[in-house]
Amino acid sequence: MTLHIAVLPGDGIGPEIMKQALDVTKAVCEKFGHQLEFEEALVGACAIDAVGDPYPPETHELCMQSDAVLFGAIGDPKYDNDPNAKVRPEQGLLRMRKQLGLYGNIRPVVTFPSLIHKSPLRAELVEGADFICIRELTGGMYFGRPQGRSEDGNTAYDTCIYTREEIERILHLAYKFAGQRRKKLTVVDKANVIATSRLWRQIAQEIAPQYPDIETDFLFVDNAAMRIIQWPKSFDVLVTENLFGDILTDEASVITGSLGLLPSASIGLHTSLFEPIHGSYPQAAGKDIANPVAMILSAALMFELGFNLMREGALIREAVNASMEAGIVTEDIAEGGKAYKTSEVGKWIVDYIRK
Hints:
By secondary structure, this protein is an alpha/beta fold. The protein contains 13 helices and 12 strands.
């Protein structure tokens, strides 16, 4: 099989962790007899600096022509700290999601046995937690119009808009994942206050009978936020709108012990994208200390969800688990032992795959 991949390292630690994921991808392709063809392109702050556009047309064209996109991270403090900046790296990310039709963000939340002690939760609460957050990615407040600020700078406004088509599409995707797992779907909304949430709940109630083998329940977003901390093992698949999903998935990721561990997939109408959930971590850029595991596991998701190559993805997961059991970890999760460099962790995983 030939894999045509667009590689977007992005900003901060993006290029460093992407190199490790690419090395792992190459090793897996060699082992299973696949041909890998990839091309890199600019996105984010580095693209603004180079061409003045956080998501250049050339990058979009490459993504459209590829079978999958591996994406690192975007963001730079010089834009974060300038509220008056007209062009921002995040604008490129939102435009990429919209133009590629990346409507469904899939974030698995899985704990690692060797790292249970790093979780901020008690071991008995988090041990065995295994659920998926599915976030609608191209609607809601992040894309609502009108949007802006008053001329005097004292008032700002955003609008949250959802259509039936957008809600139905993400719900059917969520039911598909629930059907492949423990057959429980939790729809998260704020239907007691927000009109778009009432539409979400109405449509979910209409669709639920189409999946009689799946248990469907509903939680307000504030209740869901509490339950993720109190009873994370009670969840199987959660589905929610864009803003709620952004917040809840970051909350859920922390219970594993490190933001550097969890991958994600953004399912698209055109080309799907695979990325770690963490940001660009500019303080660590160029220091060879960032955790590459989330980026490497994003490559595993690419094999599984992008190409339906399950054995390949499973081997990457096996190698990552083995590296953690062996204590080959970066400084964010090292405890009482040696902290390995980004490149050293990547090389260990590649060597495991090749043996």
